[in-house]
Each structure stands twice: as structure tokens, then as C-alpha cells.
Amino acid sequence: MSTAKNLEHFTNITFGQKVIYNSKIHFCFFNHDNGLLEIIDPATNSIFLVRQKLLIYRIK
Length: 60
Fold this sequence. Notes:
- By secondary structure, the chain is an all-beta fold.
- Helices cover 0% and strands 53% of the residues.
């Protein structure tokens, strides 16, 4: 069972970790360590630059 938490409290998001953005699962591509993350949509291989506080980190 998974639990979801708001990413505001997580600063160590690394490459490959699953995040939820706009109700879809994406993977962290690059963490800028300034509140911005680059995430990749595995369905389209598109890369998005998003604010970390808008994401939900999915924990297995």
C-alpha cells in the first residue's frame, strides 16, 4: 500500500523517484535544489520544469 505526502517537506528528491503531477505519475529527472524539479512523463518522454511544492511524492 502506498502513502502520498506533500513534497514541501522532502528536499532529497533524486533521479528516478516517482512523483504525481496533474494526477499523473512522472519520474524525477533533475533536482535544481532551489524548489524546482525537472520531471519526465514516461508516456510522452516530455520534460517539465515544476515547483516542488506542487508535487506529491509517492512512497512504496
